[in-house]
């Protein structure tokens, strides 16, 4: 049985991203998978890695618990909006604070290479957009996807990483949103 | 005379990014340019745009002052490290909180297009890396650059945006760092 972890990176509980996370969870629950969730907006932590990588910052209990969930998971489902070509700052801070050397990866001594410490896991990025997915790819080089899929998850050994774009959100009506939620529910059912 | 604004996005005052910002400033001062600075680590603000775009969050005085500096500037020099293919969370939060509809851009009614409200400005991104610049481009698709150059500054009408990579930082010696600082000093002198 798959252990699925849903990581919701939207700061606002009234956002459509929360409906997406809920719909995925319903589908995954219906499939009989083990499902855990991290709602970044609910965590108590400082998103600022204030000493950078020069000095360690103590991890808050909510981050420690989140890391246990990540370690337990076979499949990570990241749900977030694209803001300025990236994740919302608080979701980026979740990564900055938690994906640390010795935890998510480890540089090898006197080498440009590194060990990938999250090998064996897979992921799915479900991202909401206020522009068409193809436009985001062609005009902007889909930076949030390259950031999360390649520079973060891939860097730590998570693969394959599936990507789904949902949008355009700002012009969407109820009917369209219902269809998107059904699509996401089916991702959950199939543990995609 | 050019009005140059240096925006330093590294959270840690002991980081090499601070030496870079200082060196650029010295060069720009020597050229006789007007130079202002924003050191994001020194600002008092919440990087989390907690209601997203559904409800406005009051801007803190430090953000209001930062926006005045941005408006006054002809040339924006962004200095930041690449963390997980993006800007540090606090620097991303500076953008999330400040680059708001009606300030940095404005969607047109019933249209996918928008007005770019920062037209007429130019920029230079000076970014530190722990990998070679070419590797960052080819393997990861240089997401932080696409994020800041295209999806943020370009989206708001800032162009052209020059990009300089400085690195590999983690293996660099004093001599190499001195050379980088001289290079950045010369960018300052030439108002690049």
UniProtKB/TrEMBL annotation, chains A, B:
One of its GO terms (molecular function) is NAD(P)H dehydrogenase (quinone) activity. Belongs to the NAD(P)H dehydrogenase (quinone) family. It comes from Flavobacterium johnsoniae (strain ATCC 17061 / DSM 2064 / JCM 8514 / BCRC 14874 / CCUG 350202 / NBRC 14942 / NCIMB 11054 / UW101) (Cytophaga johnsonae). It holds the Pfam family Flavodoxin_2. This is NAD(P)H dehydrogenase (Quinone). PANTHER family: NAD P H OXIDOREDUCTASE-RELATED (PTHR10204), NAD(P)H DEHYDROGENASE [QUINONE] 1 ISOFORM 1 (PTHR10204:SF34). Keywords: Oxidoreductase. InterPro entries: Flavodoxin_fold (IPR003680), Flavoprotein-like_sf (IPR029039), NAD(P)H_dehydrogenase_qn (IPR051545). One of its GO terms (cellular component) is cytosol. It comes from the Bacteria. Residues 2-180 form the Flavodoxin-like fold domain.
